[in-house]
Amino acid sequence: MWTVVHISSHTMEHIAPLIQTILWVGLIGTIFWRFHTPIYGLLMALQKRVETGSSVRAGPFEITDQLKPQDPKTQKEKTAVEVEEALQAESQLPQAVSSPTECIASVQARYFQAEDLVLRAI
To answer: Which residues, 6 or more positions from 49, have their beta carbon under 8 angstroms from its beta carbon?
Structure first.
């Protein structure tokens, strides 16, 4: 009436890692399911703290007050000064420029692109 299924050791070598993976995924999923409310609360508290400009430190990792965003007026003034400096440096190089407005727009575009690339690298 009962049939005996024989599983070879070769088959178990392939099934054991699969079972281990399923158990780990299940354990991690259960932990996230059980503690999703405290984890979400912790992430929201961290986000609010960063948005208000407070420093956050966890071991060697630290977000300091220096990462506060600039107000738009200060940012525009700083950008204008830096673009002007770049234009002065570029004016010393021989180039054929069709108009000063295009030159300013070109330098400003490169400035913002360089700033974006630096922030992405960080």
So the answer is: 56
Global confidence as pTM: 0.36
Q: Beta-carbon neighbour count of residue 83 at 10 Å?
A: 18
In this structure, what token pair is assigned to residue 33? 């399911």
pLDDT by residue (tens digit) across 19-41? 999 999 999 999 999 999 999 99
- Residue 50: Cβ within 10 Å count: 14
C-alpha 34/C-alpha 6 separation (Å) is: 38
Q: What is the CA radius of gyration of the chain?
A: 29
DSSP letter for 60, please.
Answer: T
Q: Which residue has the tokens 């700033």?
A: 115
